[in-house]
Structures are given as C-alpha cells and as structure tokens.
From TrEMBL:
Keywords: Folate biosynthesis, Magnesium, Metal-binding, Transferase. Belongs to the DHPS family. Residues 38-303 form the Pterin-binding domain. This is Dihydropteroate synthase. InterPro entries: DHP_synth-like, DHP_synth_dom, Dihydropteroate_synth-like_sf, Pterin-binding_dom. It catalyses: (7,8-dihydropterin-6-yl)methyl diphosphate + 4-aminobenzoate = 7,8-dihydropteroate + diphosphate. NCBIfam families: DHPS (TIGR01496). Pathway: Cofactor biosynthesis; tetrahydrofolate biosynthesis; 7,8-dihydrofolate from 2-amino-4-hydroxy-6-hydroxymethyl-7,8-dihydropteridine diphosphate and 4-aminobenzoate: step 1/2. It comes from the Bacteria. The keyword Cell inner membrane does not apply. One of its GO terms (biological process) is folic acid biosynthetic process. SUPFAM superfamilies: Dihydropteroate synthetase-like. GO terms for cellular component: cytosol. It comes from Nannocystis exedens.
C-alpha cells in the first residue's frame, strides 16, 4: 500500500508540473537531518585505492585502519561544517577491483565504532558506504545511522537491512559493476532514464518496508556515465526529486568529468575549484546533500551561495510587490 500511494503521489506531482513538497527532515536511525538547506557529507575513505585519498587511513604495514587518524580527520571535518560522515571500505572508482565483504568489514567497523564513541562527534550521523547488505547490517549494529548504497540495491537484501535497522538509505544509480561500468555507456535521455531507474529502486525499498522519509537518491555522477551525462545530472536534482519523491544527494567531488566539461582535463589534485562549483550548482539545483572531500571550502561556498540566494529572492519579492502596487 505504501508503494502504491507513493507512486500515485509522484504521478500526481509530475502531472501537475509541480515540485513536490518534501518533509524538511531526512530521517535516519539516530534521528533526523534538517534538509531545508543543503547539507555536507564528508568522505572518509578507509581504502588503499580510492582515486583521491586512498591509503590515508590505513596502516601501511598491516592494511588495518588507523582509528585515531580517522577520528582526528572526522573531528576536523565536523569543525569545518560536515553534517554526515560517510565511511567506506571499498573503492568504487571506475575499474576498481571488488573487495570481499570480510575485508570491507575489517576496514570500516573499527572506524565506525570509534567515531560513534567519540564525544566530540556526538550527534553527527555516521554513514556506511557499501554495496553489500552484510556490511551494512554490521555497520548499523555498530552504530551507523545511514546506508549509502551506490549500486542501487543490487544486493537484494539491502532494502531489508535498511528497513529492519531503521537506517536512512541512499540509493545510488549504477548500471553494472564499478569494475566494468564504463565499458558500454548507453543513454538516450540520461536524466529521464536515471530518474525512472531510481524511481523503480525506491519502490522496491518501499515494498521492503523502508519508510519513505528515510530514502534519498543519488544520480551516480561518473558511475557509468560520460562527462556530458554527469554534467547534465549535477544540476538536475529538482527533477529527480519530483520524479522519485525523495531528497537528492549529489557526489561530484574531484571527479574526472569536472576537467573535461571545463575544457581542460586536470589531475585529481587540481579539481578543487570544479568540485566546489559543482557542489554549489547541485545545491542551487535542488540537492539536499552534497558528498565531498573538501569540506571547509564546500561548506563556506554553500553558506555564501545560500545567503545570496535568499537575499536575492527577498529583494525580487519586494520588487514584485512594488510593481503590483503601481498597477
């Protein structure tokens, strides 16, 4: 019944051409996050091979996670303006080698437990970035609040784990596997197709018992998409929100498409400006959450952009009232 009601509401909003009014909070296992203004999800990679910061949180001698280093990093992120800490133990960059769930668990569980127990991080929801339901279940038991699944519920047990644990659930768009996703990219209308495929995944989650106010969607920037596809999706969160009925998370940070669409391909170390611009464009386009490596720069840019947006809206409203008074 919930899924049918959701689908009907989504169709009604689409037919009316209106942006659906979502609740101002996204609910997760430890509370709720106000998403009436854009929020920052900080990337915490406990991996040796992530494309930007791989290896920073692993001890080189043992490949075990350094919980103390992760905690210091996350405290810094919190001070810089992070609203969510997203811990991942498997790189999902194009061509990445898959990681077995037991290896992933060895990497992320000590970090999640350490962050949850840290008094300086009290109240900050911890997210686990995983494609595996077994990893998600263990992470939730360890104190995580959110499951961030880039694979779009490819593991059919993932929705059940989210429902049983009360997790906030991010459903990402991905065709295929990270190792092979760039080999055969085919879209006729990328935004329409991504929205439709995310909508079907959302309905699966609802049927599994995940509450509607706990689901967010992610268009999967760079995941099986060309640079042009990714650029088109970054600023289209309002459409995705209208079509799926869910808040939208956008993760464009440091990705290769930023240099391509900017006319000058750049190494990952030189993509800060493009990353911040993409985050601001995503937020102005309706994204509730942006997932980033560069927390301080992004948080500051969003504060300034939102202040300008609100001031401009107030000034326009005042000017329109004056114009109406003249007539």
């Amino acid at each position: 019944m919930a899924a049918m009601s959701f689908a009907a509401d989504r169709a009604s909003a689409r037919d009316a051409g209106a942006r659906p009014e979502l609740a101002p909070a996204w609910v997760h296992a430890r509370g709720a996050l106000d998403v009436s203004a854009p929020r920052v999800m900080a990337i915490v990679n406990v991996t040796p091979d992530s494309f930007f910061d791989g290896g920073n949180l692993l001890a080189p001698e043992t490949d075990d996670p350094s919980v103390s280093v992760a905690a210091r990093l996350c405290r810094s992120y919190r001070q810089q303006g992070a609203d969510i800490l997203d811990v991942g133990g498997e790189s999902t960059r194009p061509g990445a080698t898959p990681v077995a769930p037991d290896v992933e668990l060895r990497r992320v569980l000590p970090v999640i437990r350490g962050l949850v127990a840290d008094p300086e991080l009290a109240g900050v929801p911890i997210s686990v970035d995983t494609r595996h339901a077994s990893v998600a279940a263990a992470a939730m038991a360890a104190g995580a609040a959110i499951i961030n699944d880039v694979s779009g519920l490819a593991d059919f047990d993932m929705a059940r784990v989210a429902a049983d644990s009360g997790a906030g659930l991010v459903i990402g768009h991905l065709r295929g596997e990270p190792a092979t996703m760039m080999r055969d990219i085919r879209f006729e209308r990328v935004l329409v197709e991504v929205a439709a495929e995310l909508g079907r995944a959302v309905e699966r989650a609802l049927r599994a018992g995940v509450a509607a106010d706990r689901i967010a969607v992610d268009p999967g920037i760079g995941f099986g998409k060309t640079a042009e596809h990714s650029a088109a999706l970054v600023g289209a969160a309002d459409y995705l929100m209208r079509e799926t009925g869910c808040p939208v998370l956008v993760g464009a940070s440091r990705k290769a498409f930023l240099g391509v669409v900017g006319g000058r391909p750049r190494p990952v170390e030189e993509r800060l400006i493009g990353s911040v611009v993409a985050a601001v464009m995503a937020a102005l386009g309706g994204a509730a959450i942006v997932r980033v490596h560069d927390v301080a720069a992004t948080a500051e840019a969003l504060r300034v952009a939102w202040a300008i947006r609100n001031a401009s809206a107030a000034a326009r409203s005042e000017a329109e009232e004056v114009e109406r008074g003249r007539w």
